[in-house]
Amino acid sequence: MREPTFLILTALAENPMHGYGIIREVAALSDGRVALLPGTMYTALDRLAAQGLVQRDREEITDGRLRRYYRLTGDGIEVLAVETARLRQLATVAEARLRVARPKVA
Amino acid sequence: MTGRYRLLLWAYPRDYRRERGVEMVSTLLDAGHARPGWRVTFNLVVHGMRCRLGRPASRSVALWAVLMSVVCGLYGSALGARVGWETARPLPERAEAAAIFTSIFPEHGVTGEIYRSKAMFTIYGEPLSLDNLDTLLSFDGGEYGLGDTNTSTSLPASTGQRAIIASALERLPANGWEASEPVTSNAAECATAACDPTTLPTQTLLTARRGDNILEIHTVSDPRLGQLRLAMSLSRATPWPVHPAAILGFVIGALATWLIFGWASRRNEYRPWQRSLSTVLFGFSMFMTAMPIVFTVPYQIDHHLSETHFRWHPLWEWLGQPAFSLIVLVGLGAALPTLALALLPRPALAQSHGAVDRGH
User: Fold this and answer.
1) Annotated domain spans of chain B
2) A71 in reach of chain B (CB within 8 A)
3) Distance of alpha carbon B96 from alpha carbon B110, whole angstroms
4) Minimum-distance CB partner of A43 among B47, B354, B358
5) Nearby residues of B151 by Cβ (< 8 Å), 6 or more positions away
6) DSSP B140
7) Distance CA B325, CA B291 (A)
8) 3-state SS of B9-41?
9) What are chain A's domains?
10) Geometric angle at alpha carbon A12, from A10 and A15, rounded to 5°
């Protein structure tokens, strides 16, 4: 799974969000490294929806602007959990190796 | 402000714009993109064109669309190049050609008949027209060629190929011609092991350009016959409108293919058997249309690198045309049933399917 996809799923894990909310949340989660453009985000949402990981939640009109909210599906939560476990396992292995490597360098 | 975004959203299919347009513009404005900068513009156009293919979870659909668009863009480009060739001046008249030939070889003069092709492009000496369409579509299409005004003459072998080429190389620049390096090769190959290669006839090709004239001087020397043949031909250089016309043809061909491919892909998205049948037909069509290009381009590159070309072979020859025109026609014909399948009414589910499924 690519990083932007992982970040979008993570952004939606807590609460349903609208398009701009997702863009903002992804930037915050990645410390500003990942700046999604709207075209990219909607393509990713379409793909995730086609894979059954995301679905539409509700619509609101705020300040005359349409905000459509999206949320994770059950499959989306499951896929995010699996991917998180995979990344955690990789990070654990990498950290263990780094602990061995750093004293040698020092 | 929103008008510019709405304009950019034309990159997306109509159904999608209806479903998502207002929401996307709201998101763009929320994100602080008051005006669409080049990054946002490029991003929307690229993703809009991807969206036109439907099947958002598929990566292969984009790959096939790119390949088919490039292939059809190249054929569109060749068509544009052919239209651009219509701006070329008519072939040199016999009197003009005689004056040019004499200026290069005043000592030999023009002793033979001067022939002038009936058209800029001919097949078996006849202009390309509907009358010889059957010849063109048969595998005789390779007999087509660029027309010229030419003559040839026989000289005593004692004249010597080298002497002829040397005098031409001296006079061409003096008459305002830019000459290439002459290329010498055997004019025949040994048929048996007993053959002595040094006794084979040899040929030399010298090409020159002046304005929109291309001059080819071709000598063939056969030591066994004690004869030297000198042939000269004048043809037209590629007229400049060919290049912009070819680029325009590529853009139109590629864009039209992308839009048609995307339309058919979206229409068949939720119809399993139409989709499977379309995939098979498309695969066949892709193979038939791309095969002549894959087969011909390496040969053309090798050919162009082996000798100087003041006029590159026309683009359609790089695509194997018209030699393989029947194959391409069959390939394009195979795409028609795919489009016919896409015309069938869509199931209600597909028609009501939004960009992202509505919540349960």
Assistant:
1) 1-51, 54-88+238-355, 90-133+140-187+198-236
2) yes
3) 12
4) B47
5) B97, B98, B101, B110, B112, B113, B114, B115, B231, B232, B233
6) G
7) 11
8) HHHCCHHHHHHHHHHHHHHHHHCCCCCCCHHHH
9) 3-105 (1.10.10.10)
10) 125
Q: Does A60 lie at the interface with B, CB-CB under 8 angstroms?
A: no
Cis peptide leading into B337, omega within 30 of 0? no
Quick count: other Cβ atoms within 10 Å of Cβ B78? 21
A92 touches chain B (CB under 8 A): no
Please check whether residue A46 touches B, CB under 8 A: yes
DSSP class of residue B254 equals H
Chain A residues with beta carbon closer than 8 angstroms to that of B22 = 66
Is A61 an interface residue toward B (CB < 8 Å)? no
Q: Which of B26, B29, B48 lies nearest to residue A39, judging by beta carbons? A: B48
Residue type, A9: L
Query: Do the Cβ atoms of B56 and A47 come within 8 Å?
Result: yes
Domain covering B90-133+140-187+198-236: architecture: 3-Layer(aba) Sandwich (3.40)
Output the tens digit of pLDDT for each of chain B's 360 residues.
Answer: 577 888 889 999 999 999 899 999 999 888 877 777 899 999 999 999 999 999 999 989 999 999 999 999 999 999 999 999 999 999 999 999 999 999 998 887 777 889 999 999 988 888 888 888 888 888 777 788 899 999 988 887 777 888 889 989 999 999 999 998 888 888 788 778 777 777 788 889 999 999 999 999 999 888 777 788 889 999 999 999 999 999 999 999 999 999 999 999 998 888 888 888 888 999 999 999 999 999 999 998 988 888 778 888 899 999 988 889 999 999 999 888 888 888 887 766 554 444 554 443
Q: At what angle do helices B161-174 and B94-104 cross, to 10 degrees?
A: 110
The answer to whether B30 contacts A19, with C-beta atoms less than 8 Å apart, is: yes
Contacts (Cβ under 8 Å, ≥6 apart) of B336: none
